[in-house]
Amino acid sequence: TLCFTFLFLPTYSNTSTFFVTLSILVTEMCERLTYYSISAGLILFCTSKLDIGQANATTINQVFGGFVYIIPIIGGFLADSYLGRFKTIWISSLIYIVGVFLLPAAAIEYKNWNWAELSVTGRTALFGTALVCVALGTGGIKANVGPFGAEQIESLGKEAIQTFFNWFYWVINVGALIAYAGVAYIQQEVSFAWGFFVPLVSMVLALSVFVAVKSRYVRTRPKGSILTTGFSICAQGSRREDVGSSGKKKMLSSAKRSHGGDFEDHLVDGVVSVIKVIPFCFLVIMYWAVYSQVCSY
Fold first, then answer.
1. Which residues, including other chains, have CB under 8 Å from residue 82's CB and lie 6 or more apart?
2. Could you tell me which CATH number the domain at 15-213 has?
3. Helix/strand/coil for 263
4. What pTM value is reported for the model?
5. What are the tens digits of pLDDT across the range 91-100?
6. Domain locations along the chain
7. For residues 259 and 261, what is the distance between their CA atoms, to the nearest angstrom?
């Protein structure tokens, strides 16, 4: 905390801005600690406690990770169109907590407490439900917590935003380090029940810190998703042809307001830029498909 104080106060001289920014960073660190604590022991838990084969456990791990990174599209859409970022993060955190509450419930050795032992089928059902809740929760948080943090300091200029994101990605790595170096050890050497209890505490702490300063947050009303705008631009631009002075058809230019369309020129140019980048995204998909195999054993 002292480290954050000395490094942030020169930039964020307003005390309220400092505390809301710090709360968002702590929230992100705890959420990442929670997620990586789950993913670190997922395959081992499946094979050792749920009697799932190595190949199927790996598949579960990959599918879970895939949904975690796809669902933010939905989370961002809901925040931009209907709920706003604060409410989306808050609701997603509650769903997340339900998931991490079910994890230790699936891992506890009930016979040690003189309770009826839970069957493998029961544990599997709890674990599967937990993963669904975690994927939904982290998807809603991941899409919004970074932009929400940037909104708090937008008035301070680009340098302040850059400083925020430097720390934002630093705390992500801190959360991952604690998860892989500490929580994974507890899961393997102590018990999965305690190893899954840590992410539960971490996520409860994340939500508590996040809502503690809710009255100080800068909030913006939902203005509609850029996804909807982008698809509308593509639809309008593809229906009408617009040939420039060179005689060549310009991509989606007929959707521009300056060419008789319904959309601001800079929005259309932005969509065109995204379309041009898409082929390179397939190379990124290939990279991550290979990289993800590191955690497949």
1. 222
2. 1.20.1250.20
3. strand
4. 0.88
5. 999 999 999 9
6. 15-213, 226-295
7. 6
Q: For residues 236 and 50, is the Cβ–Cβ distance under 8 A? A: no
Residue 12 has pLDDT above 60, yes or no: no
Tokens found for residue 296: 């497949």
Residues in contact with 4: Cβ distance below 8 Å, sequence separation at least 6, in sequence order: 22, 25, 167
Which residues 6+ apart lie within 8 Å of 253 measured at CB?
A: 237, 242, 244, 259, 268
Which string of DSSP letters, residue by residue, matches 154-176?
GGG-HHHHHHHHHHHHHHHHHHH
Q: From residue 225, give the alpha-carbon distance in Å to each of 90, 93, 255.
A: 19, 21, 18
Three-state DSSP at 64 gives helix
Which of helix, strand or coil describes residue 268?
A: helix
Please check whether residue 236 is in contact with residue 254, taking contact to mean a CB–CB distance below 8 angstroms.
yes
Token pair of 213 as six digits? 């300063």
Residue 25 · residue 171 · CB < 8 Å: yes
Q: How far apart are CA 73 and CA 98, in angstroms?
A: 21
pLDDT digits (tens, 9 = 90+) for 146-156: 999 999 999 88
Give me the pLDDT at residue 4, please: 46
Q: Does position 157 have pLDDT exceeding 60, yes or no?
A: yes
